[in-house]
Amino acid sequence: MEKKMSLNTYLLSITFLLLTACGGGSSSNDDNNNQPPTPTIDICDEDPDTFFANRVFPILQTRCMTCHVDGGSAPANGARWIVHASAANTQSDIDSLIGIEGFQYLLDKPSGAVSHGGGVALPSNSDNFEIYSQYIQFKGVDGFCD
Predict the structure, then answer these.
(1) Contact of 110 with 64, CB cutoff 8 Å
(2) What pLDDT does residue 127 have?
(3) Which of 5, 74, 113, 137 falls 20 to 30 Å from 130 in CA-CA distance?
């Protein structure tokens, strides 16, 4: 009984130490993760083609190209959009798809708001999504920069 009591006391003490040791520090980093990103760039201040090539295309290459490429899993499963080797061809496909599906669909799909075979590719609270969405809205919403 005495050994059981001392083991319980020991485990309780260790648990208390672990919990209090992990609880310190600032929570400001956690608070920032729940805040929408602050856009530091604005498509309305740049040429849209340059914005796409320099800002959007690199995001698509790193976040989408694994699946959305010729011979990739996305086209094999019915996706109508791929990331091409050139920014101009990729941009042309996206512009066409905005006309077919509407701009909201192109925002909802990578953010996971609608079903996406690859899961959430661009979380809606990320800087990458903010950049991507600026281009999509610029193309899909009349007067976006007015």
Answers:
(1) yes
(2) 94
(3) 74
Residue of 118, 115, 134, 117 lying closest to 126 (CA atoms) = 134
Q: What is the rounded end-to-end Cα distance, in angstroms, of the chain?
A: 78
Q: Residue 29: what are its φ and ψ, rounded to 5°?
A: -65, -40
Nearest to 103 by CA among 75, 68, 142: 142
pLDDT score of 115: 92
Distance, CA of 128 to CA of 16 (rounded, Å): 40
Tokens (6 digits) for 55: 């800002």
The whole-angstrom separation of Cα 73 and Cα 85 is 17
Place of tokens 């009984």: 1
CA distances from 50 to 57, 72, 92, 128 (A): 10, 27, 13, 16
DSSP states of the chain = -HHHHHHHHHHHHHHHHHHHHHT-S--HHHHHHTSPP--S--GGGS-HHHHIIIIIHHHHHHHTTTTSSTTSHHHHTT------SSHHHHHHHHHHHHHHH-HHHHHHHHHTSS--TT--SS-TTSHHHHHHHHHHHHHHSTTTT-
